[in-house]
Every structure is written in C-alpha cells, then in structure tokens.
Design goal:
The structure is a single chain. The chain is α+β, with helices and mostly antiparallel strands. It has helices at 7-28, 80-85, and strands at 43-46, 49-53, 66-68, 71-72, 91-94, 103-106, 121-123. It has a four-stranded antiparallel β-sheet with strand order 1-2-6-5. Strand 1 and strand 2 (49-53) form a beta hairpin. The longest helix is centred in the first third of the chain and has 22 residues, at 7-28. The chain starts with 6 loop residues before the first helix and ends with a strand.
C-alpha cells in the first residue's frame, strides 16, 4: 500500500518542481544587452545644462562615462555651476536622497540643444 502524502507535502513538492522548471526556462533564454542610449526628452535646466533621469542600471555612478556619438565627454563629476556656465561636454551623474534613479546633468560638446542637434548620447 502506498503512503498518502499530506496536503502540505504536495504543495511543497509542487512548488519546488515549479521553481526548478522556471529556473531552467530562464537559464535557456538568451541574454540581451542593455540598451545604453539615453532616450526621451532632455530637460533644459539653466544655461548650457540639460538633465535626464537614467532609466537603466549602473554599477557605480562615479565610474560611469558619457559619450556623444561615440566620443567621450567630460570630465565627469564636474561642478554643476561649471556645467551651467561653461558647458562643452561637462557632466555630473548623481542621485538625490529621495530618488532611486540617478540623474544626469550635462552639456553637449558645442553647447547646442541635445534634443535637436541630431547626436546620440550613451552612458555606460
């Protein structure tokens, strides 16, 4: 005679099998690279400075680099007043204490509007 399994045991076994099958399925999915191009409207802050919320994960804010059409901008972590007044590719990436996503404050290499200058911006 075969022993009868309790309801709790059946739930435990079923949950475990489901977790294993789900893990195997996720393992088989191809890894797709994260699109690092900044998309959406850049909001003009003041002077030469524009801002945008970064909507993809970054490992360390201090190590992130901004590129305009594949060319590096910078220096990174510039003073906000310098970005406003001087521009020319200066940028700063920071996170406000009440926000979960970082904000990028930057200027284009020639102080034109990044919404209309036709260039692509990438942060990695």
């Amino acid at each position: 005679m075969q022993p009868k399994l309790s309801f709790d045991t059946r739930v435990l076994v079923g949950s475990t099998l489901f977790a294993l099958a789900s893990s195997a399925f996720l393992y088989l999915l191809p890894v797709s690279p994260i699109e690092r191009h900044l998309r959406g409207a850049f909001r003009q802050w003041h002077g030469n400075a524009y801002s945008i919320v970064v909507k993809y994960p970054l490992n360390r804010l201090d190590d992130a680099r901004l590129y305009e059409d594949g060319k590096p901008l910078g220096p990174p972590n510039s003073d906000l007043q310098d970005i406003l007044a001087k521009g020319h590719g200066l940028y700063k990436l920071y996170r406000m204490s009440n926000e979960t996503s970082p904000v990028l404050m930057f200027s284009s290499s020639d102080n034109t509007d990044p919404n209309t200058n036709g260039r692509k911006y990438r942060l990695e």
